[in-house]
Amino acid sequence: FAELHAAVAGLPVASSRVLPGLILRRDFAAYCPAEGDLRAVLVTQPLRAALSAPGVEFAVESERQYQASLHWIARRAEALMKRLQSNNVKLLLSSTKQDEVVISYAQLHGVSVVECLSSEEVALICEITGVSPYAPFGDNTHREITETAVATFCRPLLLGSQRCVHVGFTSVCAFQPHCLILCGPVQGVNEQHAAALQGAFIMLQQLFKTVDQ
Q1: 58 neighbors 7 (Cβ within 8 angstroms)
Q2: Cα–Cα distances in Å, from 64 out to 59, 67, 158?
Q3: I need a labelling partner for 174 at 20 to 30 A (CA). Which of 77, 108, 130, 144 fits?
Q4: Name one GO biological process term (predicted).
């Protein structure tokens, strides 16, 4: 329920509504408008290439070596975004904050980026789409990226003063996610309404469970 409702203070209760899809309560790190269905990839690790393996110290002995290292990192980020682009990926969903070089090349290659997803949001997206997070490094760089979901839309959404991401996925299960937008004059009223609705849903769950038995 926490991932499927959003509270907006300062608006009349009559402005409350139900929207199809998911509302991610953060702004785009990069936004590239796209029409129609688009392929989306979910990642749970930074996409900025590391200069050394975990636990291995990388020593930079000169300014020239340092600049060469930055150039190598930039080329890896560009190659990754070109690969996503060649696989028609238009949306990158990340549980971690991505480096500026990744965001820059994503925007350059027409890939929208949403970062800092919670573990609950990641789990919900995986359940809806049936995909697993994509691991780009140590992979065959020529194979097709199969860990993609289909998003029917992805656009900015303004809830009060908060900029959000509104995204709809093609579901692989019977569950078709919708989000409840709860509006009220103050946050306390919204919290009361949310608690009452959650209690009602729990009661209905128990009722249908009893009927099934």
Answers
A1: no
A2: 13, 5, 46
A3: 144
A4: chaperone-mediated protein complex assembly
Cα–Cα distance for residue pair 174/83, rounded to 1 Å: 32
Indicate the Cα dihedral angle 5, 94, 163, 18, nearest 10°.
Answer: -30
**Taking a C-beta distance cutoff of 8 angstroms, is the pair 74, 51 a contact?**
no
| pTM (2 d.p.) | 0.81
User: Is the torsion defined by CA of 70, 92, 25, 33 positive or negative?
Assistant: positive
Q: Tell me the per-residue pLDDT of 127-176, one tens digit each, with 9 for 90 and over.
A: 999 999 988 765 555 667 888 999 999 999 998 888 999 999 988 888 88
Q: Is 159 helix (H, G, I), strand (E, B) or coil?
A: strand
What gap in Å lies between CA 88 and CA 116, rounded to an integer? Answer: 23
pLDDT digits (tens, 9 = 90+) for 180-210: 888 888 877 778 888 888 788 888 888 887 6
